[in-house]
Amino acid sequence: METSIEIVVRPTEIDVNGHVNNAKYVEYLEWGREDWYERLGLPYERLLGLGAVTVTVNLNLDFRRECRQGEALTILTRPERIGRTSFALRQEIRKPGGEVAADAVVTLVTIDPSSRSSRPVPEELALAFRP
């Protein structure tokens, strides 16, 4: 399932070069992932109830075009691949008109919240990766 959220670049997200600071792109992607979990019916509390939480272990982010204050951006999130204890999501930040401003593959690992050790991806989450 692909999800999409809309945001507007705020003045506090702009750096000295007059465009969105690189760290903010990581935050935008996180907002997209949180929305993806919510729409799957797996908010943090639900995953915790399944004995699992997810942690980001790798982020490959390519910056394509600058974003400026006041621009409406769309963050797209979709499943990329799944393993036994980890999975990856592909994300894009698009400018008005659909031009890709940034794209990323984010790898996450499922861990047991008590032991803090990796554990298999819960079935409810794994279902999002099936056709």
From TrEMBL:
EC number: 3.1.2.-
Keyword tags: Hydrolase
GO MF entries: fatty acyl-CoA hydrolase activity
Enzyme class: hydrolase
Source superkingdom: Bacteria
Keyword Hydrolase: yes
InterPro entries on file: 4-hydroxybenzoyl-CoA_TE, HotDog_dom_sf
Record keyword Hydrolase present: yes
Alphabetical list of CDD domains matching this protein: 4HBT
SUPFAM superfamilies reported in the protein's UniProt record: Thioesterase/thiol ester dehydrase-isomerase
Family membership: Belongs to the 4-hydroxybenzoyl-CoA thioesterase family.
Record-given protein name: Long-chain acyl-CoA thioesterase FadM
Lineage, highest ranks first: Bacteria, Pseudomonadati, Planctomycetota, Planctomycetia, Isosphaerales
Chain's gene name: fadM
